[in-house]
Amino acid sequence: MSKLSNIDLKRINAIFSLISNYSGIEKKDIPENLALSQKIEKTYLFLKKYEKIYKTTVIEYDYINKRIEEILGVVTSIAKLDYSKKAYIEGNGDIFDAIAGGINMLGEELKGSTVSLKEKETLLREIHHRVKNNLQVISSLLNLQTSFIEDTTAKEKFSESVQRVRSMALIHEMLYNSENLSQLNFSKYIESLSKYLFDTYVIKYGYIGYESSIKTNIKIQNIDTAITCGLIINELISNSLKYAFPNDRKGTLSVSVDQNDKSEIKIIVKDNGIGMSNTPVIEEISSFGFLLIHTLIEQLEGKIKLTTGQNKGTKTEIRFKI
Amino acid sequence: MEKVIETRVFRTWVSKEGILCTEVKDGAEITIEDAWENTEAVYKLVSPDSSLPILVNLKNIKSISKEARDYFSLRNRNSAVNAMGLLIKSPLSTIIGNFFIGLNKPVVPTKLFYTEKKAISWLLKYVED
């Protein structure tokens, strides 16, 4: 019989449990003074004593140790998604062969699932890439068309559409570049979108500073929500940059994003531009941009609050559940 | 006397009750090639346009590959087999049997049995007149 001093208590418990199951001896039959934390040697002797009564065989320690070590090795490999190792089935018809066989089969099934998941992930990444490319083609076509338009208003409308399409393309670009395809890092998206819009307009408008306060690591699983929200921010930022700072007026545009609780997001787009004399009712503003904002807010089942005043800038606050 | 077809790891025949019987040889490690051979054997024993219940004796099995499990469940001889009784005994055969039913999900009614008598009694319901 081997020495047991090096076997830790956890393993003693595990081995004891296996022995008792194997030999058919119920745990309730074990006297309390032979509790699990006691030396396995005593337990072994106890079981040996009952061996004849129960007409069964108590497995030797070395065998148990060897089989457990081996099976644990395979489980550890599987946990690391290494499926090359297989537990050996000795053909003794015992519980260790059953565990080894079960572990081997679970490993095979898991390997199949992992491969299938990887394939799906690659496919999804490819789809996002293609959607982004297609949106880029659309925005390039619109851009090209813009250069042939002479009417200033029509030209402006085309440019606005280009920005909207690019806002949508940005999400797909971020998704195929991200590690996790099932959720979007909303914080990064809004940060990138705001900077992109600001950089696009600032060439034209100059003198305007940009500030942001975006809570990090807000994750959104519903991509439609992110796209809708991106379009709203696109409208608000472009509105501010177009109308709040006329005649080279200096000022600041700020974007803040916060998550009040786990399910509600608050976005504020604020400028210190010329503002409006009266706070308008959003639903009653006749511009296409505000009509779009109103429709998109309804889609999000969110709320919008507009605060403005003559030379007091404009602040738009959006809240929605995710 | 019943005609027995013997392959590398199986012995297959039709019993007097009209049940297809397949016995896994002692310590057999079933591969996809073995599964194909077994299917060929079954087709030789079952007349075309008819189907029989099958009793698979897994008592002495050592292992079965994923490909073979998938083949037996998904591309089963579903035209030749209409129900499956799996005879188990050792902890290993119990695990394999449960695994086959739980994860590989055979397309025909399948049950595990510890005794041949109970298995045959259940399979007889699937013997066509």
What is the secondary structure topology, with strand pairs?
The complex is a heterodimer of chains A (322) and B (129).
Chain A: H1 9-23, H2 40-54, H3 61-79, H4 95-147, H5 152-177, E1 184-185, H6 186-205, E2 208-214, E3 219-220, H7 223-244, E4 251-259, E5 264-271, H8 288-300, E6 303-308, E7 314-321
Parallel strand pairs in A: 2-4
Antiparallel strand pairs in A: 1-3, 4-5, 5-7, 6-7
Helix pairs in contact in A: 1-2, 3-4, 4-5, 5-6, 5-7, 6-7, 7-8
Chain B: E1 5-6, E2 10-14, E3 20-24, E4 28-30, H1 32-45, E5 52-57, E6 61-64, H2 66-74, E7 81-87, H3 91-104, E8 110-113, H4 116-123
Parallel strand pairs in B: 3-5, 4-6, 5-7, 7-8
Antiparallel strand pairs in B: 1-2, 2-3
Helix pairs in contact in B: 1-2
Task: Please give a structural write-up.
The complex is a heterodimer of chains A (322) and B (129). Chain A contains eight helices and seven strands; from the N terminus they run αααααβαββαββαββ. With 322 residues, chain A is an alpha+beta fold. In chain A, the strands form two sheets. A five-stranded mixed sheet of chain A has the order 2-4-5-7-6, with helices on one face. A two-stranded antiparallel sheet of chain A has the order 1-3. The radius of gyration of chain A is 33 Å and the shape is elongated. Helices cover 57% and strands 13% of the residues of chain A. Chain A has helices spanning 9-23, 40-54, 61-79, 95-147, 152-177, 186-205, 223-244, 288-300; strands spanning 184-185, 208-214, 219-220, 251-259, 264-271, 303-308, 314-321. Chain B is α/β, with parallel strands linked by helices. Chain B has a six-stranded mixed sheet, with helices on both faces. Chain B has a two-stranded parallel sheet with strand order 4-6. In chain B, a hairpin with a 3-residue loop joins β1 and β2. Chain B is globular, with a radius of gyration of 13 Å. In chain B, 40% of the residues are buried. Chains A and B meet through α4 of A and α3 of B.
